């Protein structure tokens, strides 16, 4: 036992009480004794057949080419997402695919191609690994556990936090090879076990087995001591279920979540106005059983009602959202403490020994121990919006504008929306652009009287005018928010390094208006072989014609002899700028024309399938195939340089 906080006395026999005899000299005897006193989580994996069977700990599906077989759910039609093996034989080829993880609740955003019971994956594995002699089950492991509810966690830790980040994996999902799972005979016991595995005591037991705490392999997890009584403690079940449900409710404000309802700002606004809360509208099958249990905290609603002092304020709504998240985090921390208290009590760990354990947990994981590790999450996009701490009021306002812009583009009949108002070729009526349509949405929601306040607060939050943010920042924001698989693409003028430098300098001024030239947004789910032709001839050609006319009028004024020297100088400058715009427009038109002609491309990718499919869709001129996903279909537009520069972040 520990004589003080520096010197520990322990025998080799005591160290051997823990499987693998790790050199855990600091561990109190009561912690080591748990491995002798209680059975392992999974006796079969732990190779302790004489112990009682508690759970099955299983690795999941290895596709061997995630870029080919997985998508984010927003890339596929939701009506093609199934949650039973039977449905995969009925046209629902995509199944929710659990990968990664966050504690208690993790929104499962990936789907995997499991058409006809994984027919294509199994065939691919047999072809790729001939030495398996047709035994695909050596890679497609534990298929009998697919679609079952359980607990899941990431194989490789992506942070240095002291936690498994274990979450409840709902029925109707398949777990990934890098996201191991626990299955119980009685699914109602999942919630108690979830609480136990998110306790600091079970984590510290794991650290005894795997001191680097980086590789959360089932071989270690299966050996963890589990007192059977933990499965039948109502307190633990209620606490973990509450944490799960509160986190799931918060996810309803995240536009990429399967349970998305509306941005947090609009949820607060609607709750204040009507006292009601909306339901998920994604159509995703994992959102079907959603129900509100806790709602928006009272302090958040009170702030939204009182802060404006009877006057509308977008910032007041955003600040209410900040309070909502802060209240959520406070309650989750409280739940975590209650779980820890209950689990330490169940395992009969004294206060003195608990203090030693928690002191050890407070030590940081050494950074060098994490270097050089790679996950098996081959092909998954590597970047996403990373926001430390509680989301700011400004972030909530950006989420609102992003959502409204997404709505506008998704609602357009052909999914093509110009940035600014324009007269498309062959049409006599003015078509409202993205800027005007977003403003119209804002007015419909908040009312005409509130618009001056809305405009002022938008500029404060965005750091620029609405039109400038939509022109220069929206697409990059969208790319990050949608995990490098954007479903809105911005076609704009190719930019030189000099223009990019000028553009960055413009961003530093919140009051300066950005000069916007041709720019249109296209919607992934309405992309077809005619989309680029429409962009080229219906939207771009009128810009070309207008600039050519502007140049002709400028030449006539310069050569008229009616201008003063000063006027002549100003006119010549405008003429030069117009000629530069014309060259840029012609350059864009030429690049689109080249895309529409048969060609081949050199593609950098980890997946041979990606390379093959990119060239397939350009072999006869750009002809998208949405079944191949965003990564394949966006590549030709990236290479031609017709998309805003943030498209370069789409890779894999």
Describe this structure in words.
The structure is a single chain. With 652 residues, this protein is mostly helical. It is built from 23 helices and eleven strands. It has helices spanning 12-15, 29-37, 43-46, 66-69, 115-128, 190-197, 200-209, 218-221, 234-251, 264-274, 298-306, 314-346, 351-361, 393-411, 434-446, 451-462, 466-472, 474-481, 497-507, 531-558, 565-595, 608-618, 629-640, and strands at 56-58, 70-72, 94-98, 110-113, 150-152, 167-169, 174-175, 181-183, 416-418, 488-492, 519-523. The strands form three sheets. It has a four-stranded antiparallel beta sheet. It has a four-stranded mixed beta sheet with strand order 2-4-3-7. It starts with 11 loop residues before the first helix and ends in a 12-residue tail after the last helix.
Please describe the structure with a list of short key phrases separated by commas or semicolons.
4-stranded mixed sheet, 45% helix, mainly alpha, 4-stranded antiparallel sheet
């Amino acid at each position: 036992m520990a004589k003080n906080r520096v010197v520990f006395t322990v025998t080799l026999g005591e160290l051997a009480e823990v499987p693998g005899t790790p050199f855990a000299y600091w561990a109190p005897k009561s912690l080591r004794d748990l491995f002798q006193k209680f059975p392992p989580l999974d006796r079969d994996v732990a190779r302790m057949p004489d112990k009682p069977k508690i759970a099955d700990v299983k690795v999941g599906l290895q596709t061997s080419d995630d870029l080919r077989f997985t998508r984010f759910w927003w890339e596929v039609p939701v009506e093609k997402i199934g949650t039973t093996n039977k449905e995969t034989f009925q046209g629902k080829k995509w199944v929710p695919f659990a990968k990664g993880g966050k504690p208690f609740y993790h929104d499962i955003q990936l789907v995997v191609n499991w058409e006809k019971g994984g027919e294509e994956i199994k065939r691919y594995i047999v072809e790729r690994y001939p030495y398996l002699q047709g035994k695909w089950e050596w890679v497609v492991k534990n298929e009998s556990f697919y679609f079952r509810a359980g607990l899941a966690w990431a194989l490789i830790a992506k942070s240095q936090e002291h936690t498994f980040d274990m979450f409840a994996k709902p029925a109707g999902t398949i777990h990934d090879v890098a996201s191991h799972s626990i299955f119980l005979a009685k699914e109602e016991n999942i919630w108690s076990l979830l609480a136990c595995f998110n306790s600091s005591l079970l984590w510290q037991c794991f650290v005894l087995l795997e001191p680097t705490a980086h590789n959360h392999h089932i071989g270690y997890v299966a050996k963890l001591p589990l007192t059977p009584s933990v499965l039948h403690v109502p307190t633990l079940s209620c606490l973990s279920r509450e944490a799960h449900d509160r986190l799931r409710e918060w996810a309803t404000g995240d536009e990429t979540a399967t349970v998305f309802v509306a941005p947090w700002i609009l949820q607060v606004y609607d709750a204040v106005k009507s006292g009601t809360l909306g339901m998920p509208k994604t159509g995703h099958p994992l959102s079907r059983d959603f129900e509100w249990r806790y709602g928006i905290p009272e302090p958040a609603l009170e702030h939204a009602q009182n802060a404006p002092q009877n006057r509308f304020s977008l910032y007041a709504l955003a600040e209410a959202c900040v309070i909502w998240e802060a209240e959520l985090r406070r309650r989750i921390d409280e739940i975590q403490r209650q779980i820890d208290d209950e689990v330490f009590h169940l395992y009969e760990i004294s206060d003195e020994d608990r203090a030693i354990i928690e002191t050890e947990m407070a030590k940081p994981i050494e950074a060098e121990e994490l270097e050089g590790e790679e996950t098996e999450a081959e092909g998954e996009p590597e970047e996403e919006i990373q926001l430390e701490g509680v989301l700011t009021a400004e972030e909530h306002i950006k989420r609102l504008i992003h959502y409204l812009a997404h709505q506008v583009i998704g609602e357009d009949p052909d999914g093509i929306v110009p940035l600014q108002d324009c007269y498309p070729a062959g049409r006599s009526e003015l078509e409202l652009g993205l800027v005007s349509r977003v403003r119209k949405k804002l007015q419909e929601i908040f009312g005409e009287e509130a618009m001056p306040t809305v405009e002022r607060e938008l500029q404060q939050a965005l750091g620029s005018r609405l039109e400038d943010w939509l022109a220069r920042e929206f697409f990059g924001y969208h790319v990050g928010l949608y995990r490098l698989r954007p479903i809105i693409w911005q076609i704009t003028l190719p930019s030189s390094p000099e223009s990019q430098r000028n553009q960055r300098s413009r961003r530093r001024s919140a009051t300066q208006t950005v000069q916007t030239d041709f720019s249109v947004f296209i919607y992934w789910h309405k992309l077809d072989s005619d989309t680029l032709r429409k962009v080229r001839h219906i939207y771009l050609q009128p810009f070309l014609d207008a600039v050519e006319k502007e140049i002709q009028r400028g030449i006539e004024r310069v050569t008229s002899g009616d201008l003063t020297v000063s006027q002549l100088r100003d006119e010549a400058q405008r003429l030069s700028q117009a000629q530069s715009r014309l060259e840029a427009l012609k350059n864009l038109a030429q690049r689109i024309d080249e895309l529409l002609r048969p060609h081949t491309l050199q593609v950098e990718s980890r997946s041979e399938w990606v390379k093959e499919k990119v060239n397939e869709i350009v072999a006869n001129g750009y002809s998208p195939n949405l079944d191949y996903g965003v990564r394949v279909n966006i590549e030709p537009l990236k290479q031609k340089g017709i998309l805003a520069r943030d498209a370069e972040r789409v890779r894999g």
